[in-house]
Predict the 3D structure of the following.
Amino acid sequence: MNNRVPFDLYLVTDRHATEGRPLLEVIQKALDAGVKAIQLRERDLPARELLFLAEQVKALTDRAGATLLINDRVDVCLMIGAEGVHLRADHLPIPVVRRLLGPERLIGVSCHSVEEVREAEKGGADFVVLGPLYKTPSKRSYGPPIGVETLRAAKAGCPIPIFAIGGIQSDRIPEVLKAGAIGVAVISGILTAADVGRAAEHMLEVLQSHRMVPTLT
Ligand code: TZP
């Protein structure tokens, strides 16, 4: 965690992955458990419905003191006053997005390779999400997992935070933190859990207990 990116668990939404439960209810449970950052990623929703949903999610995150990022839609981010956007790999140029959003709002970028991480960092991203690291039921379109070695290589010399994504369950957290991730981004590990609150709480506990602390010399 750092001052600009004050979270290490980033919940990415997918209303088709909630086992039939209303998305807002599931998000509320995650927030109650202590999740401090949500990416609203409902890419198949028409603009108007997305805007309406985003307003409702923003009310929940505001109440919980959490950060809300909107996937891809700079316009929706600005309309609802969200804390930032999360750009996909084939995104608009980051400096252009920065100009629209201003210096305070966060820009996260999805990356699938070391080169994309370097590019996002050079462009001015605040953080990146790298994956899929492991096999995931949530995203087949990105092909095979890129593995923890890619994370290690991406982190070398990279000053911005990297979140690991793709097949992340609690037991993967120690390995990805050791490889240089600041935290994890998760869909199914939380949204499909029978007890959403407990799943989120457990991830937060594991993150906290494995957080890399600088050693004093
Ligand atoms: N980007 C890379 S993998 C992925 C995204 C959005 C899906 C992650 O889903 P899950 O269920 O946490 O593995």
The longest helix spans residues 47-64. The radius of gyration is 16 Å. The longest strand covers residues 106-111. Residues 36 and 65 are 7 Å apart (CA to CA).
